Amino acid sequence: MSNIQELKELTSLTVINIVDNEIDGMSSPCSCMAPIPNSSSKQDTRVATYTQEFVTRLNEDKSLDMNNICNGAHGLSLLLIAEYKDSHGSSEKIVKKYLLFDGGPNPSVWRDNAEKCKIPYKEISHVVLSHYHIDHSNGLRSAVPEICKARENDVTVDLHPAKVATRGLKVRGKIYPMKPDNPLPSEFQSMGANVDIHQNAHVVNECFYVSGEIKRQTSFETGLPGHFNQFHDAKYGKQWVPDEDIKDERYVACKLKGRGVVVFSACSHAGIVNVCLDASQNLNCDLTAAVGGFHLAGSGVENRIDETIAALKKIKPDLLLAGHCTGWKAKAALAKELPYIFNPLVVGGKYRFNSL
Ligand SMILES: [Zn+2]
Ligand SMILES: [Zn+2]
Ligand SMILES: [Zn+2]
């Protein structure tokens, strides 16, 4: 049973990109999200604003010190900061909730970038792992201990029950393991965190919908070819078990007042179109933005780029922020076909979604 009726409508939602493949502290944003210059008297009705990393560094450090610039790494880690208005009679207050979505591929990159982005560890009560892939889970080996230390272990790590120890990819007939192995629930417990295991959709911390299994609805989003699991358990031992669907992947979605759903998809092995459709159907409102890895890089999936873009055009979101495993071919095609709603997601960037 999902507790979806508890999901708050947000008045704003801020995203800090702690780890991502691409670093680009300079490029100006697409017209759908740039703040209007000198328009402070008029309310900007665009869905989001963006602060480039270099601007943040200049504002905070009063210089552009290259030692303070984030590192790119193959993976994703986003801090989500949700705000809603809580009213009791005539009094009204703003409530803020924090969630860390994945940790990226490397503990030292996560810690280093998080320090540079001045991530408030003390505020992060919940961590969600999207799926057991090491480019999303390994960075949690520094993130979770840092947050545990700051909060005296008052942190919940939300995991899927699949508990896949190792994943592998078949290249030219041989399966290569992705290393190191994934942290499993017992490892997070030994760090001091509380572990919550969920197979089904549920609401975390009032503001964040964490999906169950993502419904496959399109014909062209057919998983990751040549992908395998090792469970290291009594049933399978070290046997490779085929798993092209990666059904343990979950997305996180928020409801932005007056706009609709903002969906965060780490790797989109179910396909970004399936993710967008599933989030919009389950939260029962239109999709305003999709953020994350669209998984359109690599010879096995690049043939889906055209169909993906055609389907996204039908969904008509206000904004697409694509990073991590989207790949340059898909990003170039998105920029050409959807120039007013596409913007690359880059490490060190700050994105703020505004309600209406
Ligand atoms: Zn991916
Ligand atoms: Zn993945
Ligand atoms: Zn990934």
Rg calculated over all Cα atoms: 19 Å
Give the count of structural domains: 1
Helix percent band:
10-25%
Tally of separate helices? 8
Q: Would you list the SSEs in sequence order as H and E?
A: EEEHEEHEHHEEEHEEEEEEEHEHEHEE
The largest sheet, given as strand count, sense and whether it forms a barrel, is: 8 strands, mixed
Identify low-pLDDT runs: none
* CATH class categorisation: Alpha Beta
Q: Structural class of the helices, strands and pairings?
A: alpha/beta
**Overall 3D shape:** globular
Oligomer: single chain
Ligands in the model, by name, code or SMILES, are:
zinc ion
CATH superfamily: Ribonuclease Z/Hydroxyacylglutathione hydrolase-like
Name of the CATH architecture: 4-Layer Sandwich
